[in-house]
Amino acid sequence: MAIDRPVTAPERGDAQERESGVGRARKVPFAIDFYRSAVGKKYVMAVSGIILMGYVFAHMVGNLKLYLGAEQMNHYAEFLRTLLEPIFPYSGALWLMRLVLLAAVILHIHASYSLTMMNRRARPVRYQSKRDYIAADFAARTMRWTGVIVLLFIVFHLLDLTFGPANPDFQAGKPYENTVASFQRVWVSLFYILANLALGVHLYHGAWSLFQSMGWNRRRFNAWRRYFAVGFAAIIVAGNVSFPIAVLAGVIS
Amino acid sequence: MDLTLHVWRQPGPDAPGQFETYEATGITGEMSFLEMLDVVNERLIEEGREPIAFDHDCREGICGSCGFMIDGQAHGPQRGTAACQLHMRLYNDGDEIWIEPFRASAFPVVRDLAVNRTAFDHIVQAGGYVSQATGSAPDANLIPVPKPDADLAMDAASCIACGACVAACPNGAAQLYTAAKLAHLNLMPQGEPERYVRVERMVDTMEDYFGSCTNMGECEVACPKEISIDFIAMLNKDYRKAKFRGGTSQANTR
Predict the structure, then answer these.
(1) CB within 8 Å of A243: residues ≥ 6 apart
(2) What is the ipTM of this complex?
(3) Which class is domain B117-251?
(4) Quick one: B3-111 is in which CATH superfamily?
């Protein structure tokens, strides 16, 4: 294939630097050097994804206390604020967890944005005939969209039930009453259900994909990676979606 | 059978291209896809028109020269089959077929369906070799290799570097190709000493040209050699280990 047009690297173009022996690994700390690579960014996406999955699971299980009544739910919320007292001040442990979550969210978004831009550069001219995908399923191809839906929902959700300005009936320290008041607005419940379905689709791919990104691959156990992703997504969606339905149906009031 | 082809025609790398429609008449089921294109090209030549340019060499599915998108799939609809081994018996009289070159910024179109895959060579040049003292050939089986390892290495070594994985990948990533080129050396004792240097150099070079893997698995089903994405997980694991070792990019491997 002799043509006189050299294929130039569309990316960082530091191949020459590498060839000359001035590796970028020499100048920066390990974590930054690793994060500069796309494979490293996928590790960051996987690890931050695991943190966020752990949170989403704990959040869903904690909210099951809605079914036990206002006293249990509000007591649980107060417990989270007094967690690890007196080592931490009031709300200290809670805010520490929130900071970890915020860092995970920021890294998850930054890595995905940066990788998306890299992937766009890798195929600037799209296919002009219709693509026929065989393995790339709906969930895998819509990660960016489901991710954005979930992000927008999280912003609203915090304003609605954590800080209050999006909830006219908001009372500090009374999550049970706040949740019921919020879900009695039908549009909030519908948005909540839609966002959780998007989250489920996101988890269906993400909870499987993280094993590949982390290099966790054993042929004997590979089928379980998919079972785990399906099970995890189903449990989260079923638990979360049950809350607005229960409020609208009058089971929780 | 008579078919209608919509073929991407592009006179050169920077020239604009478009689909042109051709009637492929009198095609038999015994013809391969490339032989069908040969028949169309013969008629174009007889009419004094420019034939459709496409890469091909062995025509028995082992060289990796051929390959283009057939109805939106790299190498067409049959699993584990390069375009040259795809036979027209899969099609029915009256079918319409869309034929388009592999698309990636690292695979610029040379002409029509032929693309420049030199970027793959740069990845192999970065570490797809073992450094050996030259001399007389060593005895066979001098170095014991466990059979499962040899089989796995052979699975990876079946990569023919056709580029279908990149073409099929929605991200234009070359992970499956690079993973295969890594694994077939890294799984063998001869490749082990340079394993982590190789991983770091080849992955870093790959990322200079191609997109990133999002684990969709589209490459695996497009691959004419059915190479598993398990090798991509191996690449990820080895890259992490290489980086943890503190960076090996300065090591002299020549």
Answers:
(1) A63, A66, A179, A183, A192, A252
(2) 0.93
(3) mainly alpha
(4) Beta-grasp domain (3.10.20.30)
Query: CA of B55: which chain A residue's CA is closest?
Result: A1
Residue B172 with chain A: CB contacts under 8 Å: 119, 122-123
Name the residue ranges covered by the structural domains of chain B. 3-111, 117-251
What residues of A are in contact with residue B203 (Cβ under 8 Å)? 37, 39
Q: Tokens standing for A35?
A: 């994060």
Q: Could you give the domains of chain A?
A: 37-124+136-248 (1.20.1300.10)
Which tens digit of pLDDT belongs to each residue from A4-58? 444 555 444 444 445 444 444 456 888 999 999 999 999 999 999 999 999 999 9
Confirm if B5 and B22 have CB atoms less than 8 A apart.
yes
Which residue among A1, A115, A132 places its CB closest to the CB of B212? A115
Residue with tokens 């497009």: B222
* Contact in structure between A55 and B225 (CB atoms under 8 Å): no
Distance of CA A177 to the CA centre of its chain: 27
B63 contacts chain A (CB < 8 A): no
Distance CA B206, CA B167 (A): 15
A214 in contact with chain B, both atoms CB, cutoff 8 A: yes
Interchain contact, B218 vs A134, CB within 8 Å: yes
B5 interfaces chain A, CB cutoff of 8 Å: no
Spell out the residues 6+ positions from residue B240 whose beta carbon is closer than 8 angstroms to its own.
Answer: A34, A39, A40, A43, A215
State whether residue A131 sits within 8 Å of chain B by CB: yes
What single-letter DSSP state applies at residue A160? I
> For the whole model, what pTM was predicted?
0.92
Alpha-carbon gap, residue A59 to A64, rounded angstroms = 9
Q: Do A212 and B6 count as a contact with CB atoms less than 8 A apart? A: no
Phi, psi (deg, nearest 5) at residue A193: -65, -45
